[in-house]
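dumping this here so i dont lose it
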């Protein structure tokens, strides 16, 4: 029974680290998109912003999952938590850089373009950016494992 409580405590600690990384991902995406992301998604109901945020959330979750898997070692819980945090933040950084590079390579301001909902449909660029976030997550996840 002690093992169950210990494992539950570890899961909660990894959950807190994951939450910190997810929050960092949200803040990073908020910095590279026009307007306040929370307002754009929940108040303006912008579908392009929702596509980006949803895909980035899944992507960050994938990186965290791989980071947790890679953190299992004999070095202890503290080492595992720290490595998960650092790998997760590295993933957020790489995703943000990919988003910036894509923005530089596309016509217009990418952040504004992907938030351009026409007739209630997200701009195709939002789906491309979403795919890039997921692809980057697989890349970073592979590098971590």
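and the seq i came up w/
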């Amino acid at each position: 029974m002690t093992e169950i409580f210990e494992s539950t405590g570890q899961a909660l600690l990894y959950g807190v680290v994951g939450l910190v990384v997810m929050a960092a991902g949200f803040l990073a995406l908020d910095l590279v998109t026009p307007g306040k992301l929370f307002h754009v998604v929940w108040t303006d109901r912008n579908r392009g912003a929702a596509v980006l945020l949803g895909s980035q959330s899944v992507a960050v979750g994938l990186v965290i999952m791989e980071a947790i898997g890679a953190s299992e070692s004999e070095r202890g819980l503290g080492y595992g938590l720290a490595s998960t945090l650092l790998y997760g933040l590295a993933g957020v950084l790489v995703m943000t850089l990919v988003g910036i590079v894509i923005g530089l390579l596309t016509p217009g301001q990418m952040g504004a373009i992907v938030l351009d909902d026409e007739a209630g449909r997200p701009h195709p660029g939002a789906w491309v950016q979403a795919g890039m976030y997921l692809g980057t997550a697989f890349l970073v996840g592979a590098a971590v494992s």
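The longest helix spans residues 2-32.
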